[in-house]
Design a protein that fits this description.
This protein is an alpha+beta fold and 560 residues long. The protein has helices spanning 22-36, 43-50, 54-66, 84-94, 96-111, 154-159, 164-176, 195-208, 251-275, 291-299, 305-314, 326-333, 337-350, 372-375, 380-395, 439-446, 471-484, 526-551, and strands at 40-42, 70-73, 76-79, 114-121, 124-131, 146-148, 211-214, 221-229, 236-245, 353-355, 361-363, 399-404, 410-417, 432-434, 487-490, 497-505, 511-520. 41% of the residues lie in helices and 18% in strands. Helix 1 packs across helix 11, helix 12 (326-333) crosses helix 13 (337-350) and helix 15 packs antiparallel against helix 18. Residues 174-201 are annotated as: Disordered.
Length: 560
C-alpha cells in the first residue's frame, strides 16, 4: 500500500484493474484534490489539478453536491461536514478512538501538552485522534493527516513490524520523493537525511520500546511516542505521542520528564483494549444506495450514479461492521453483487479497502484522505454559516447563531448573516447581550437545570418598559420555552425589536447554541412568527445539527 495517496503520485500507481469503476476513481481524485487544497477549489482549478475535462468536473461536483458532500458556492466547490461520514465509518470500524480518546485527552490535560494517536498507513503514519492545547504556538496537525514515517516519533515504532517488502517500498518512495512533496501536511524537506538514519532509529525503537522526534518535522517541534499494542495479537494497534515545542521541552527533556507519564497512559490504554467487550450488535443497514436511482431520474446526465453508489459502499462499514463480505456489502447498499464487487475492486486499487485472507473487506486509514483533515477542524459557526444564509434568503430577515458565555449570564454572537434593508438589526459577531432578555439566551437557559440558570444582576435590569425582570416570572418563561422548544422575545431588549430563537443540540441532546432571526415589530405579527418563522428556524436547526453530529462524532467541534 503506498504511503501517499495514489492519485497524488500517478507514476507510482499500479495498473487500473479492468473491472474498476472509472467515474469512482475520478470522483475520489476530485475529493483528494479538494482535501489537499484545504477543502475548497474553483471548478477551473479542479479541472487543472485533476486533468479531467471541465464537463466531467461539473458532473462529478454536481453529484457530490447532491450527496451533500460538496457545496457549490458560485464557481467554487467546497467540502461539507457531511463528507466526514466516510472517515467516521473507518474510525467507527477501527474502534480505537472511541476506546482510547478519553485516556489521550486526560494525558493532554495532565501534561498540558498536545497528545496524538496515530496508526500505520503504508510507510507513513495517519492521525486518528488529536488532543491539542490552545496556544499561540500549538500543534497544527489534524485527524486524517498523513506524515512520512521517517520524520515522526511513531514512524520508527511501526517500522519495527515492517517486512522486507515494506522497507523496499519505503526506499523506492524516498528515492522518488526525497523532499516529501507527496505529504502536504508537512513542510518539504530540503536536505533529506540518509536512509541509514531511519533504520538506526527503528532499531533503537525496537530496543527501547519508545521513540523520539527531535525537530524532524520542522524546527522547534519535538515529540516522544510509545506503542499501544493489541492484546490479542501483540502487534502495534496505534502509537500515542506527546508533542511539544523546544521553548517548553527539549527532546531529551520529553524523554526524561514526560515519557514515564506517557508509558503509564499507554499501559492503561492497553488495559482498556484488553477489557473492551465486542461491540453491541448493530442492525446492519440496508438499501443505502437505493436513493441514487431517483436522483438519476431527476438530474439525468448531470448525476453520475456509479460514483454515488460507489461512495455509499464506504458507509456500509462501521462499529461492529469492521469486516464485511461481498454479500454483506451488497445487502447493506442494496446494490447487485456485481456492482458492489466492482466498487470494492476500485477501492482496493485506490488503497481505500483491503481484503483479508478470509475474503472479507476492511476500510484502510486512507479513507481519511477523503476530506477529513480540513473538515476535522471545522467550528460550529463555520458549519452554521451556509444554513444561516439559506434561512436569511427564505425569511428575508437577518439570522444569527449565539452561545452562552462561560459565566452563563450573557450570550455571544458567533455567526451572523444580515439582509439588505433600510432598517435592519445591527449586531456584529462577538457582541454580547444579557441572556435573560434575548430569545437565544432564553432558549439556552431553558435547557439548563433551574439551579444552574444564571440571570445576571439580582434582580435583572429592565432594558425597556416590557422587559421581564421578576425572577419567578422569568423562571416560568424558561419552563415554557423548554416545553415549546422556542423562545419569542417582544420588545424586551430594545423597543421595536422582536426576535425568535430555537436551540441547536449536539449528539448528546444538549443545547450548545441557539439560532434566531430578529426583525422590527412591524414586519411580522406574533402569530406569523410562530406559524411561519418557527418552522423555518427548526428546519435550519435540524440541518445544522445534522452536520454537527457528523462532525462531532470523532472530532472536537469548536463552539466559537
Amino acid at each position: 500500500m503506498p504511503a501517499a495517496d495514489p492519485t497524488l503520485q500517478e507514476s507510482a500507481a499500479p495498473a487500473v484493474p479492468a473491472e474498476a469503476v472509472t467515474p469512482l476513481i475520478r470522483g475520489v481524485h476530485v475529493l483528494r484534490e479538494l482535501t489537499g487544497a484545504g477543502g475548497s477549489l474553483s471548478l477551473s482549478a479542479l479541472e487543472r489539478a485533476t486533468g479531467l475535462a471541465r464537463s466531467t468536473v461539473d458532473r462529478i461536483t454536481a453529484t457530490l453536491a447532491r450527496m451533500g458532500y460538496v457545496r457549490l458556492n458560485g464557481r467554487d466547490a467546497v467540502l461539507t461536514p457531511r463528507l466526514m461520514e466516510l472517515g467516521n465509518a473507518y474510525l467507527a470500524a477501527l474502534r480505537l478512538p472511541a476506546l482510547l480518546d478519553a485516556r489521550a485527552d486526560a494525558l493532554a490535560d495532565a501534561l498540558d501538552e498536545s497528545v496524538s494517536l496515530a496508526v500505520r498507513d503504508g510507510d507513513g503514519i495517519r492521525f486518528i485522534h488529536q488532543a491539542t492545547r490552545r496556544r499561540a504556538m500549538s500543534l497544527s496537525f489534524r485527524i486524517g493527516d498523513l506524515l512520512p514515517a521517517e520524520r515522526t516519533a511513531p514512524g520508527p515504532l511501526f517500522a519495527t513490524e515492517w517486512t522486507a517488502e515494506d522497507w523496499q517500498h519505503w526506499r523506492t518512495r524516498r528515492a522518488a520523493d526525497p523532499g516529501n512533496h507527496g505529504f502536504p501536511a508537512v513542510p518539504p524537506r530540503r536536505r533529506p537525511a540518509a536512509d541509514e538514519e531511519f533504520t538506526r532509529r527503528s532499531a533503537r525503537a525496537r530496543q527501547d520500546g519508545w521513540a523520539l522526534d527531535d525537530q524532524l518535522i520542522e524546527p522547534g517541534l519535538v515529540a516522544v511516542a510509545a506503542p499501544v499494542r493489541d492484546p490479542r495479537t501483540g502487534r502495534i494497534a496505534c502509537a500515542a505521542s506527546v508533542v511539544s515545542h523546544t521553548s517548553r521541552h527539549t527532546a531529551a527533556g520529553l524523554r526524561d520528564t514526560l515519557l514515564p507519564r506517557l508509558l503509564e497512559a499507554v499501559a492503561a490504554m492497553e488495559d482498556d483494549l484488553r477489557a473492551a467487550f465486542p461491540p453491541d450488535p448493530v442492525p446492519a443497514p440496508s438499501g443505502l444506495a437505493t436513493w441514487t436511482g431517483a436522483s438519476k431520474q431527476e438530474l439525468g446526465r448531470e448525476f453520475v450514479e456509479s460514483l454515488a453508489r460507489g461512495l455509499t459502499v464506504l458507509t456500509a462499514f462501521g462499529e461492529g461492521r469492521a469486516e464485511l463480505t461481498l454479500s454483506e456489502v451488497a445487502k447493506a447498499t442494496g446494490l447487485a453483487r456485481a456492482t458492489a464487487r466492482r466498487a470494492l475492486i476500485t477501492y482496493e486499487h485506490l488503497g481505500l479497502v483491503t481484503q483479508s485472507r478470509a475474503g472479507g473487506f476492511r476500510l484502510t486509514p486512507q479513507v481519511l484522505s477523503l476530506g477529513y483533515p480540513p473538515l476535522s477542524r471545522t467550528s460550529l459557526p463555520q458549519i452554521a454559516a451556509p444554513h444561516l444564509a439559506a434561512l436569511a434568503d427564505r425569511v428575508h430577515e437577518s439570522t444569527s447563531l449565539a452561545v452562552l458565555t462561560a459565566a452563563g449570564d450573557e450570550i455571544q454572537y458567533t455567526a451572523r448573516v444580515a439582509t439588505s434593508r433600510v432598517m435592519s438589526v445591527n449586531i456584529t459577531v462577538g457582541t454580547r447581550l444579557p441572556a435573560y432578555a434575548t430569545s437565544m439566551g432564553r432558549v439556552l437557559l431553558a435547557d439548563l437545570p433551574p439551579a444552574e440558570r444564571a440571570l445576571g444582576t439580582e434582580p435583572p435590569r429592565a432594558l425597556t418598559p416590557r422587559t421581564v425582570t421578576d425572577p419567578r416570572a422569568l423562571a416560568r418563561i424558561l419552563d415554557e420555552t423548554a416545553a415549546q422548544g422556542y423562545a419569542l422575545v417582544d420588545e424586551e431588549l430594545e423597543e421595536g425589536l422582536r426576535s425568535i430563537a430555537v436551540p441547536v443540540r449536539d449528539r448528546t441532546g444538549r443545547a450548545v447554541a441557539a439560532l434566531n432571526t430578529a426583525m422590527h415589530t412591524s414586519r411580522h405579527s406574533l402569530r406569523e412568527c410562530v406559524d411561519d418563522i418557527v418552522p423555518a428556524l427548526r428546519t435550519t436547526a435540524d440541518a445544522v445539527e445534522s452536520d454537527l453530529h457528523v462532525s462531532g462524532r470523532f472530532s472536537a467541534v469548536g463552539m466559537t
